[in-house]
Design a protein that fits this description.
Number of strands: 0
Helix content: over 70%
CATH superfamily: NusB-like
CATH class: Mainly Alpha
Distance between the termini: 23 Å
Shape: globular
Order of helices and strands: HHHHHHH
CATH topology: N-utilizing Substance Protein B Homolog, Chain A
Largest sheet: none
Structural class: mainly alpha
Number of helices: 7
Radius of gyration: 14 Å
Strand content: under 5%
Length: about 140
Amino acid sequence: MKEIRARAREIAFRSLYAWDISGGEIATIAQEIINMSEPPLKKDSQKYALLITKKFEENIESIDKKIASYLENWTLDDLGSIEKAILRTAFTEFIYIKPKRNIQAIIDYVEIANNYGNKKTPSFINGILSKLSKDIYNV
């Protein structure tokens, strides 16, 4: 299950990043990224990635407002596209899907930040997602 969700989160992140950079239909972008994935994505990963991107597309404005409420001395426009895409993916999952293993989800998003962001991105993402997780899960 861990690998399935981790890969799905990365695909959803890559889809939202590509959409932020170039525009277009999020569902089409996500499907293209899934089709190009190596090794091929398992069906469960595909479904979960598409669920995240669909929920984001349905709730863009509210997700962006929620992210903005967690940014101290920043606006969403101040963020780089990588950071914005990671937060959009994570906030969508946490708010609309509510993963049972929220700590593992944070670990996966920090790993995405390690792989795609700059050296400050992982701690930035970890801090915001830890706060979001505490607010949602009352931990």
